[in-house]
Design a protein that fits this description.
Layout: H1 2-35, H2 40-54, E1 92-98, E2 103-109, E3 116-122, E4 130-136, H3 148-155, E5 164-170, E6 173-178, E7 184-187, E8 191-195, E9 201-206, H4 214-221, H5 228-254, H6 259-277, H7 285-290, E10 300-302, E11 307-313, E12 321-327, E13 333-339, E14 342-350, E15 353-359, E16 366-372, E17 381-387, H8 389-396, E18 414-424, H9 432-439, E19 460-463, E20 475-481, E21 486-491, E22 500-509, E23 512-521, H10 526-553
Antiparallel strand pairs: 1-2, 2-3, 3-4, 4-5, 5-6, 6-7, 7-8, 8-9, 10-17, 11-16, 12-15, 12-17, 13-14, 13-16, 18-23, 19-20, 20-21, 21-22, 22-23
Helix pairs in contact: 1-2, 4-5, 5-6
């Protein structure tokens, strides 16, 4: 009995020393077990929380550091809804519809599925702008080209909403999408509002700002020059970058638990795939965006069955009358002209040679021309649009020796591009307008082998004497486009390298001013033209660079027109 009393006294003494801590922790664990708390962190910190609650505000208490491993939460799998190969791969450009408002619709159709894509973009000679896309019957998705995960996503959405929907862009950025059932999404860079047909908000989705890289932002916001082969590269880059951003948003929406939001996500994934499919091939948006418009008296000829869609540039001038001439030979073909959403002329299918004179509106800049060749591969056709005398004088300087386009299938066809820096925007006075005015202030800055100190005039002729005069006067005619900060030299028939043309344009890139020169033609010595272009135009650019920097060093910041 006495031994038992000694043990009790010893235990009480032990509790007197360490008891409060042990008792509190034992009590907290007991309560957790009694109340069935399943949080380890709560049971472990119960004691500390109690002290913090019961202690006086003026009492400083140092809590023991208790690190508890975090229990991982279940996350939704990342979605990469890639429909690029699942969409029809045989889209063809069938029509280009110009509008006086300053844009055009480019129609693409898939012969195998009848799916249609209608892109609204800029007119020629402007930086690339994507205004909108209309999709029709795009629900024809080849599910055999999908991954199992993507096929599962398709099964949980409503592909019928892809039958008809349209997407709106502002400054090449996604702005809005409207599905066939009226549900829609409105977008900023960081957020999507999913709305019902009656404009009620269904769900708000936030996007991480970091998802857009600096390179992507530059590619979608900075204007890119639509010139020669670099135009196709620039537009293709833009389409891919826009498609990437739209695709990221589509992936985010496709992981939603809301059916309507997933439907919008699927439509965005289809939009992304369509944009990325529209590069490089001859029947792609990137090619159509960069193709030069047909000019007065420029004959278009075909030797095969095809649908040829072009824009004809209406010459400036008060006389807006043009004459369309065409011949379909023995096999019937069809020709159509479009303007502002209307068919202004249609003829065929028929054979024979015909002529039609049209009066065009004063505000029209372009007319869409579509030639529908017969399915017979032996079909042959041509067409040419001629302009009245006053109109020709304004468009091509009244010179019928000028050739503005060239057969890229000719054995002598050649083209080249040369780009050189002139000055930096960090230098006071260095800007596009100043450099352009310096270039047109002296003929030696627009063509090689010319040293005369004479100002360049619109539609003037200049003799270059390329082969030291052996071939005679190698005459060019120069046109000036002040708005585009460019000049174009056209060869005349007495020029050694006729037919051909060279355009020189002043532009800005990465904080510097450059002169970009590109040439094209089917004259003699095509290989020599291409190989020597860098050296020849490099010398001209060197003279221009020296003149610009000399003037700026002398604080001369303006050049008289």
């Amino acid at each position: 009995m006495s031994r038992f009393r000694v043990l009790i006294i010893g235990f009480i003494g032990f509790l007197a020393v360490v008891g409060p801590t042990i008792l509190n922790k034992t009590f907290s664990i007991f309560l957790c077990g009694l109340l069935s708390f399943n949080s380890v962190g709560l049971c472990a910190n119960f004691n500390n929380s109690a002290y913090a609650t019961l202690s006086s505000p003026n009492t400083n208490i140092t809590k023991p550091s208790t690190k508890i491993g975090q229990i991982p939460r279940a996350r939704k799998p990342n979605i990469n809804l890639d429909l690029q190969q699942a969409l029809p791969q045989d889209f063809l450009i069938t029509t280009q519809m110009p509008f006086s408002s300053g844009n055009r619709e480019v129609f693409l159709i898939s012969p195998s599925t009848k799916a249609q894509q209608i892109y609204t973009i800029n007119l020629p000679n402007a930086s690339f702008q994507l205004y909108g896309i209309k999709f029709q019957n795009l629900a024809a998705i080849d599910e055999s080209k999908l991954t199992p995960k993507n096929r599962l996503i398709i099964d949980t959405t409503k592909p019928e909403n892809l039958n008809n929907f349209h997407v709106v862009f502002q400054n090449n950025k996604l702005s809005k999408i409207v599905l066939a059932d009226g549900n829609q999404g409105e977008f900023t860079e960081t957020q999507a509002l999913i709305k019902s047909p009656d404009d009620q908000i269904i769900e708000i989705i936030d996007f991480p700002q970091a998802s857009q890289t600096e390179e992507t932002l530059i590619a979608t916001t900075k204007p890119m020059l639509l010139i020669s082969s670099s135009c196709n590269q620039n537009v293709s880059s833009k389409l891919v970058n826009i498609g990437d951003i739209v695709g990221e948003k589509g992936n985010k929406l496709s992981s939603s638990e809301t059916q309507i939001t997933r439907n919008v996500g699927l439509a965005l994934a289809a939009t992304s795939a369509a944009l990325k499919n529209n590069i490089n091939s001859r029947q792609s948006l990137s090619i159509a965006s960069c193709e030069q418009a047909v000019q007065c008296n420029e004959k278009r000829v075909s030797g095969a069955s095809e649908i040829r869609s072009n824009l004809f540039e209406i010459p400036r001038g008060t006389n807006r009358k043009v004459t369309l001439k065409y011949e379909f030979f023995d096999i019937p073909d069809t020709i159509e002209l479009y303007l502002d959403g209307q068919t202004i002329h249609s003829d065929g299918p028929k054979s024979g040679e015909y002529e039609k004179t049209l009066d065009l509106p004063n505000n029209a800049e372009y007319v869409g021309v579509r030639l529908i060749g017969n399915r017979d591969p032996k079909t042959r056709w041509w067409y040419v649009i001629s302009c009245s005398g006053s109109a020709i004088a304004n468009a091509l300087c009244g010179d019928d020796e000028i050739q503005t386009s060239y057969d890229d299938k000719s054995k002598n066809y050649h083209k080249y591009e040369v780009e050189n820096e002139i000055c930096s925007l960090d230098t006071q006075g260095c800007n596009i307008d100043f450099v352009f005015r310096v270039m047109v202030s002296n003929k030696q800055f627009i063509a090689p082998n010319h040293l005369r100190q004479k100002k360049v005039e619109h539609c003037q002729t200049t003799n270059l004497y390329i082969a030291m005069g052996i071939s005679g006067k190698d005459t060019i005619r120069t046109t000036i486009n002040k708005q585009n900060h460019s000049i174009t030299n056209y060869t005349r028939k007495n020029h050694l390298l006729h037919p051909g043309k060279v355009t020189r344009k002043i532009f800005e890139k990465n904080g510097k001013i450059y002169v970009f020169t590109w040439g094209e033609g089917t004259g003699i010595k095509p290989d020599l033209n291409e190989k020597a272009s860098g050296f020849i135009w490099g010398r001209v650019d060197k003279e221009l660079r020296f003149a610009v920097r000399l003037m700026l060093s002398r604080k001369i910041y303006s050049v008289p027109e």
